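Lab meeting tomorrow. Please check the following:
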Amino acid sequence: MAKIIGNLVPEDDYTHPLGTETNFNESMYFNFFDTTKQMGGFVRLGNRANEGRAEMTVALYRPNGTAMFMFKRAEIANNDAFDAGGLKFEVIEPAQKLRTVYRGSVLDLEEPRALTDPKAAFTQNPAKKIELDLVHDAVGAMYGGSKDKQETDRPAEQQFGKAHYEQHMAVSGTLKVDGETIDLSGYGLRDHSWGPRHWQSIASYEWLTMNFGPDLGFMVSVIQRDADNVRRGGVMIRGDELEPLVWAEVTAEYEDGAPFHRTVRADVKTQSGEELRIDGKVLGFIPLRNRRGGMTTQIGEGMTQWHLDGKVGYGLSEFLRTIDGEA
């Protein structure tokens, strides 16, 4: 079993008792990138059992910049499992091996930026039936915590999740599209969180995941709750060893006239004092959004090729921005 860092136990890989908060959310997320085929994607289930639904997302990037995508609010009656809308997560060995399976429809998006208008995108783009079946094996420690005091001290409607952990993974499996089977093999990152969540409780964040093979990975995070509250950090993973990042700054270049990042630069400092610059080029981009209470949270999802001292890696650059109004 992989090393566990933080106040976690292997059983945290399963679902947790449902809280009483109306916005209680328990979610699992997995991303994956095949460096040879230049394909990747992510899947997510967010159980909101007190609202009677789960948020289900499947996003797949093709090497030519097109994408396949599906989002559903699937009905659920409890928080007993991650199984909704055709997407299912299975724990094979806690903290070590998990399986993700999706059987269902996806939008076939010639231009993924069409999702800036989801209603039009869902009515104007064709659908395909796919089968995605992946096994995720740990290539690093499971790190995080089961209670974030900075979150639990806030009212539930202002929380983003009281517990959270992540882990770098090796990924293998298949994607079936139109009768063709595509073998996938590469690396990615998974996360698991639970507790009250409103996407609009955070003003912005940049969340970067990077795998440079089985022995080197990074997670970089800059979270701005408001103008006076910014958390910068992350981790560097070398095998089973983890070193915290004590500083992180993320800058980006954007497409003309749109809030879509096309390049990313991360300047980080490790706990031991090592300073690193990591440059990223976005290979595929999917714009998502979440609306509540007259506010819109824009979430830009970029499949990214990373460069560090001659090494090439792959991962995701996720930029979140919450704005007033219904843009």
The CA atoms of residues 61 and 67 lie 5 Å apart.
